[in-house]
Design brief:
Layout (H helix, E strand, L loop, with lengths): L1 H6 L20 H27 L5 H11 L7 H10 L5 H12 L3
Keywords: Mitochondrion
């Protein structure tokens, strides 16, 4: 029965559904992928802020690893990332953390 729910699609449904968040038909694998994409956009924004402060661009993977120390890449939700994404700037604590860690590593 569980497999039937997962694979059921009505003929009139489209790829963009108007289901409410948290509805049982949600695909957890897709949610992970979307969250990962959103996480990566936050990392890119942090990387850009660091570049603006230090004048050099750190590697994306380095910044991603440092951001993951503060914000989980997996197992969190948008409520964790949205305030970071909307409030990000050179004075944001996450940017300060990344800059401090990069300077400790001799960046």
């Amino acid at each position: 029965m569980e497999g039937e729910k997962k694979n059921f699609r009505s003929p009139s449904s489209s790829s963009r559904s108007s289901r409410a968040p948290g509805a049982p038909e949600r695909d957890p694998e897709r949610d992970k992928l979307v969250y990962s994409h959103y996480f990566n956009s936050v990392v890119k924004d942090v990387q850009a802020e660091v570049e603006g402060v230090l004048g050099r661009t750190p590697h994306f993977q380095t910044v991603s690893g440092l951001v993951q120390k503060q914000v989980p890449k997996v197992g969190a939700d948008y409520k964790t990332l949205t305030p970071i994404k909307t409030q990000l700037g050179p004075d944001h604590p996450l940017v300060h953390f990344v800059i401090t860690e990069l300077l400790k590593r001799g960046f």
